[in-house]
Specification:
169 residues; mainly alpha; two-stranded parallel ribbon; 50% helix; globular
């Protein structure tokens, strides 16, 4: 959250906020705010909690289960990319524009390999096992800060999604 706040403040003119009507999926360390969709706090969230316990109940648990499932796909992808392109684990302290180019180059190479059908052992593990998450890519990251976002307007949007998901169950 500190890095996020610094980025949106220091580079506010160029920070890539989501387009109007879109949002980024963020974890519980982030504020549920316009353009950033966080899970409900104080409710079961992690996939392992759902696997080891009863089915999700109520709109908040059902929403958090769907949110966690999507977030797991994203984490797996970033984890595999960090394992494949080791420079992404600890980008050297270059200027921000050079760091951005390193990330874009890695993603371009990855996309080229995927669209060309080139065998990719790293993503094959991810493709063949939906539970595979290369944890070592996240070992040195600090735990997220907890922020209270109860009064945020994005909560109405989250509630509408949660009600829609709960009504389908």
């Amino acid at each position: 959250m500190r890095v996020f706040n610094d980025s949106t403040t220091t580079y506010s003119a160029v920070f890539p906020h989501p387009p109007q009507g879109k949002y980024y999926l963020v974890d519980s360390g982030y504020v549920n705010q316009q353009g950033y969709l966080a899970p409900y706090k104080g409710s079961k969230y992690h996939l392992q909690d759902f696997r080891d316990g009863p089915e999700p109940e109520g709109k908040e648990e059902i929403f958090n289960y769907a949110h966690s499932s999507l977030r797991n796909v994203i984490e797996r992808s970033f984890g595999v990319l960090k394992m494949k392109w080791r420079i992404l684990q600890k980008i050297p302290p270059y200027a921000p524009h050079k760091q951005s180019r390193i990330i874009v180059a890695c993603m371009a190479l990855h996309n080229f390999m995927r669209t060309s059908g080139i065998a990719d052992k790293h993503f094959h593990r991810c493709d063949s096992n939906e539970n595979y998450v290369p944890r070592q890519a996240y070992e040195d990251q600090p735990p997220p800060e907890v922020v209270d976002d109860a009064a945020n307007p994005m909560g109405t949007f989250r509630d509408s999604l949660a009600y829609a998901l709960a009504s389908r169950s």
